[in-house]
Structure formats: C-alpha cells, structure tokens
Design a protein that fits this description.
Layout lengths: L6 E5 L6 H13 L3 E3 L11 H11 L1 E8 L7 H17 L5 E5 L16 E2 L4 H14 L9 H10 L4 E3 L3 E4 L2 E6 L3 E7 L5 H5 L8 E4 L2 E4 L15 E8 H7 L8 H22 L3 E4 L5 E4 L10 E4 L4 E4 L2 E4 L4 E12 L5 E11 L9 H11 L6 H14 L5 E7 L2 E6 L4 E4 L2 E3 L15 H5 L8
Length: 453
C-alpha cells in the first residue's frame, strides 16, 4: 500500500443515504481515520466533484460502498464503483471495495458481486463494530487531527433549529363533533346465507364482522336490509361511549378490541365517502387506501379556503414538466378514540403520467416523492391539507361521514390547531413569513435541489 493512501472513501447515493453517511463518517473520524464523502461539501467555490475523485484515486486505502436498492442504480455511484474496481486491480487489493449492506434486498453490481459485505441492516452499531474490527486488522493508519470538527459541522447540516417565536401548529386531527349515540350488533336472518352477511363490502354502511354478525352504527332499513339483498336484524345495542370505555362483555369484546373496531368503522366510512365523491384509492405498502382526485375529478386551479381564522389557497393536483408527471395530493384516515375522539388524516402524494392512472411502480413513486416532498410540516403542506379538506367538505365547517341512515360522524374542519412557544426550522428552511405568498404550481413542481439533479 502506498504511504499516502490512508483515507477511507465512502460512496453512496445522495440525498437518500446522507444521514447514514454523516453518522458513519463522524464515528470513523472520531476513531482517528481520514474520511472522504460528498456530504463534506461545506464551502462554496470548490470543485468538490474533482476533489472527491482525486481523493478516491490518490488517497483512498479503502472504499466503503453503501448498498441500497435505489442507491446502487445511481450513475454517480456506478462511476465510483468502476474507479474503485480499477484501483483494486492496480493496488492488487481484492478487498479494496467494502460493501455496507444498509437495506435488503439489493442486487449487487457485477464488479462487487463477490465482495463480502458488512451488515448494517440489523443494526448500525453492530455493523460499525464489525467494520472497526476489519479496519484495525488491516492496519489502516489513524490520527487525522482537526477532521472531527468538519464532520460535526457536516452532521449539523439539515438539523432543526429553534427560534424564540411562537408558532401556530396545524395538526392532522379532525375533532369529532357528533357521532351516533349507540352502536349495534346485527345478525343475518334465519335461512339467509351467512357468508355474504359477514362480507363488509356488501353492507351499505361501515360494518366490522364479529362472530356470526357485524358491529355497526347502522340498523336494517324499512325492508329489513343492511345492504342490497342483505337481510339482517338488530340484535342488541350499547352506547358508543360505553362501548369505547368498557368494550362489550356480552359479546366478548374487550375495550382495546372495541377501539380497534371503532377505528375500522371510521376508516371504512371515510373510504366510502371518498369513493362516492369519485376519488380513486391508491394502496400503499400497508395496503391502506389513500384517496386522490384525477384531472377530471379534482379542481385544476387554486383551491381557496376560508374558515375566518385560517385562510389561503393551494392546488391539490398539478403537473411537473421537468419530471413528465402529474402529482395528486392524497389522504387516508383513521378514527381514534384517544386522547379525544378524532379522525387522524395522513397525506401522501400519488403520481400519474396522464393525470388519470396512478403510477404503480413503487420504486419510481418513492423517488418522485423524495424529490417533491422534502418537509411535510412547512406552510405549503399545511395549506395544501386545508385546501384538500375545504374541497372535500364542500366549503363547510364540518365534514360528514355517513355511517347509517340519517347517521353521520361529523368532523370539524379545519384540523385542530395548537400553539408552540418556539418556532422549529427544518434544516435550511427559512423562518416562516406571515405573508407567505402562494407559489405557482409550475414553479413548485419543478423545484429541485442540486443534489437531486
């Protein structure tokens, strides 16, 4: 090994793996090693790409390759793998490239397919211990004075800051204003097949199968049906409050089960409501449906919302010419009984190429979301949440989810708002502007940091 080769070079995808690399680089630097990685870009006016390549070609004793399915497809990472492979032959060091497995599964590039990886997936601390043992065994020189300060400065990049200024916080909780006073246990009538009755999809309103019947807020209609061709009978009922606090011992339902059923009923009611509004459901990794409007359903321009004390405007769908996709604001919901009765909504972005059909490729959707949504808590996203709810609620102060004939779960909109005594700045976010203007959709949609280009 040439005397000047004493550095560790970390190859990884940006920005996906920055957090891990900052952590690992700080740990290795604290151990006394000289470490190079592109998250060290702390000063302007430097051709950092050239500096990095020079460090890899002339100073690196080992190259650590962060392995994730997305990262290994980045062209920059593949270029560094090629350089590292050439150096391995030049230095006659078959173990010059050390893969670090951060996620699974991933397909190792051909040039490092035979290299033995160090496992960080089961625990970063465990992986660091194994890596430290390996570096010690090969006798890599230590003591890089002054380097730790640079790594700590780099690690602080993107950290949240606090300002001594109060900040209103818009939550994602819609408080329950009213709901049915009683919940029912209904069974199929004698002689009717049981299987269709236990299928929640056959019911007109939300229903949770339990034993030989269903838990529901609904009761049979005048014809004795709980759905089309679904005869049933109301066997028993209990107050909703008591159900949530005590369960229903007569039917073997513990309090925790009652709360799960309550949440299930609310999610079904929200799904049915959105489906009836003509929205489309997109199934995420947890199979929960997030509801979005296509270019024929959702308003194409700014949605202006005004609840007196909270007003503004945002788009809920748009198009990015740079990426060649349409973006659609989407939402799923869970009804919760604690710490108070509320519907917790969760936003996400759905993408389409034609404005009508969601992109099903999970990997591509993930990359698109990372480039669009950098921080869900900033003013843009809070206003988008309000604009979407204003549209769903038909410009009213309540959103009504039907759960029975003449029965609804009435939710207050906009979401609950809290006050925080300090303002949190996320990373490089500028302080909030009380007169924050709307950003046109074409400008916002094409915003991209240099790291993402």
């Amino acid at each position: 090994m040439a005397a000047e080769r004493k550095a560790i070079f970390i190859s990884h995808a940006t920005p996906e793996d920055n957090h891990f690399v900052r952590w690992l680089g700080a740990k290795l630097t604290a151990m006394g090693y000289e470490v190079w990685a592109d998250v060290m870009r702390l000063h302007g006016g430097v051709d950092w790409a050239r500096e990095l390549e020079g460090a890899l070609r002339k100073r690196a004793a080992k190259m650590l390759l962060v392995c994730t399915p997305t990262g290994l497809e980045k062209q920059g990472v593949r270029n560094e793998i090629q350089i590292g492979s050439d150096l391995a032959r030049e230095l006659n060091d078959k173990a010059f490239i050390i893969p670090l497995r951060l996620e699974t599964p991933y397909e190792a590039p051909f040039l490092v397919a035979q290299a033995q990886y160090i496992d960080f997936k089961s625990g970063w601390a465990r992986g660091l211990t194994e890596l430290a043992d390996l570096l010690r065994d090969i006798g890599l020189p230590r003591e890089a004075p002054g380097a730790m300060t640079s790594w700590l400065d780099s690690h602080a990049l993107g950290a949240d800051q606090l300002l001594g200024k109060s900040e209103p916080l818009v939550s994602n909780w819609l408080q329950v204003q009213r709901q049915p006073k009683r919940i029912h246990f209904c069974e199929s009538v004698v002689g009717a097949p049981l299987e269709p009755f236990l299928n929640r999809q056959n019911h007109s309103f939300a229903a949770v199968p339990h034993r030989a019947g269903v838990i529901t807020f609904a009761v049979p209609d005048a014809d004795g049906n709980l759905g089309a061709g679904l005869p049933g009978k109301d066997v028993a009922s209990v107050s909703t409050r008591r159900f949530l606090e005590e369960g229903w011992p007569d039917y073997g339902i513990e309090p925790y089960q009652a709360k799960r059923m309550y949440s299930d009923l609310g999610a079904q009611a929200f799904d049915k409501f959105c489906r009836n509004r003509g929205l489309k459901g997109f199934a995420g990794s947890g199979r929960r449906l997030s509801w979005w409007g296509d270019i024929k359903t959702a308003p194409s321009g700014q949605v202006r919302f005004d609840w007196s004390y909270r007003r503004g405007s945002r788009q809920v769908i748009g198009q990015s010419g740079k990426r060649g996709v349409h973006w659609h604001y989407a939402m799923n919901a869970q009804l919760r009984a604690s710490p108070l009765w509320h519907l917790r909504v969760s936003p996400r972005l759905v993408f389409s190429e034609n404005g009508m059909d969601a992109i099903e490729d999970a990997k591509r959707s993930h990359v698109l979301r990372r480039s669009f949504a950098k921080g869900w808590r900033n003013a843009r996203w809070r206003d988008m949440l309000c604009a979407y709810l204003w549209w769903l609620a038909d410009r009213k102060s309540e959103l009504h989810l039907p759960v029975g004939a003449g029965e609804v779960i009435a939710l207050a909109v906009p979401p609950m708002q809290f006050s925080c005594p300090v303002t949190v700045l996320e990373g490089d976010e500028l302080p909030p502007d009380d007169d924050d203007p709307d950003i046109p959709a074409d400008v916002w949609a094409d915003e991209m940091s240099e790291e993402e280009e």
